[in-house]
Amino acid sequence: MANEPQTEALPSGVRVPEGEDEAARRVERLPGQQYCVFRTGHELYCLSVSEVEEVVEWSALTRVPLTPPFLMGIFNLRGVIIPVLNLAFLEDRRQDVPPTHLVVAVWDRESDRGAMRIGLAADEMFGTFFTSEPLLVDEAPSEVPHCRGMLRYDRRLALALNLRRLGEAFPIPII
Length: 175
Fold this sequence. Notes:
- The protein is mainly beta and 175 residues long.
- The chain has a single domain (33-169), classed as CATH 2.40.50.180.
- The chain is 4% helix and 45% strand.
- It contains one helix and twelve strands; from the N terminus they run E-E-E-E-E-E-E-E-E-E-E-E-H.
- It has one helix at residues 163-169; strands at residues 6-9, 26-29, 33-40, 43-48, 52-57, 71-77, 80-85, 101-108, 115-122, 124-131, 147-153, 156-161.
- The strands form three sheets. A five-stranded mixed beta sheet has the order 10-3-4-12-11. Strands 5-8-9-7-6 form a five-stranded mixed beta sheet, with no helix packed on it. Strands 1-2 form a two-stranded antiparallel ribbon.
- A hairpin with a 2-residue loop joins strand 3 (33-40) and strand 4 (43-48).
- The longest helix is centred in the C-terminal third of the chain and has 7 residues, at 163-169.
- The relative contact order is 0.21.
């Protein structure tokens, strides 16, 4: 079951008193979640690894005329056109310094068109982070509608993105 605690063996060298059964030789561990953590502009963001299709190095984008300022352009990922969103578009990003990576996120839409893919511009990748602590949902900033909670990461807080609400907050044209 997903919410049941998982167990793992004790590290070697740890003694268990005689008479204890195999269950006593196990350490209880809370179920956890793995997140992909990255920085865009001045903010840290995270996505569940189940929502991340892949992370690729920054590639050349094709600008699309008359698009909103948060849509940096589109790129071709093995035959699939991916719109690239700049979450830090309100910050004064230097135009001569492009992001370093693209986080390709995917989620199922509730329509017959299937999954939606989006590229998120990332200035710095921190990799994956496993935690058994729940997201801080009550502390999520109300002025960030695409945030579903916050994650404690390396003595900082990362905004946990809600991809469905991200598509509502940043309406991306269907390509």
